[in-house]
Amino acid sequence: MAKEKDSTSLRWLIPVALLSGFVGFLVYLDSLDPDGDDRPPETTSAPEQQPEQESSGETPRFKFYEMLPDSEVATPDIEAYRPDESESDRNLEYILQAGSFQSREDAERQRAQVGFQGLRARISEVSVDDGGVWYRVMVGPFDSRSRMNQAVDRLVEINIQPMVRRRNAEGEG
Fold it and tell me: Closest Cα to residue 95, out of 156, 158, 152?
């Protein structure tokens, strides 16, 4: 019985000894200098040694630090773009078509979804040549492209890709 107890403790002693030796070997490898020098690593607390090495007259590896201040790039003189605002552009307004459905219930659902984004939508009923009826969900009108783009951004956030329609401000287009 005593012999069995000794062999059990010996079974645990060998793996623990091997593991400890392996960890010790890893610590030893970590302390070695990667350059292959056998001297121990220096521990200095004097930060003054680095500036002395820089001012020792070594030529810098890169010369663009000296070249950039001396270089100058000549750019051509071009007038800034100014779009023409013709009379017809000022009288335009923008309408977004958020969807077109054959069922009024689908159009109402889309209109409610648009309404939750803080946009006013209406449904227009359009008859087509074959006798069918389509229900369009229209958002707007917007008097400027920036307001229209803000509305487009809100619709895209809820995965609606609207179609932009332009018309004259006086009537339907």
Answer: 152
Q: How far apart are CA 105 and CA 125, in angstroms?
A: 13
Q: Is 3 left (phi over 0), alpha (psi -120 to 50) or beta?
A: alpha
Residue with tokens 């977004």: 96
H-run or E-run covering 87? helix 87-90
Residue 25 tokens read as 């070997």
Residue 137: pLDDT band (50, 70, 90) is very high
CB crowding 120-149: b at 16 or more within 10 Å, else e: ebeeeeeeeeeeeeebbbbbbbbeeeeebe
Neighbours of 25 (CB within 10 A): 10
Range name among 69-78, 97-106, 145-154 with the lowest pLDDT average: 69-78
Label residue 90 by pLDDT band (50, 70, 90).
Answer: low
Distance (Å, whole) CA 41 – CA 18? 28
pLDDT band at 74 (very low <50, low <70, confident <90, very high): confident
The arithmetic mean of pLDDT across residues 2-15, rounded, is 73
| Nearest by Cα to 151 from 159, 143, 140 | 140
Q: What angle do CA 70, 73, 77 make, to 5 degrees?
A: 145
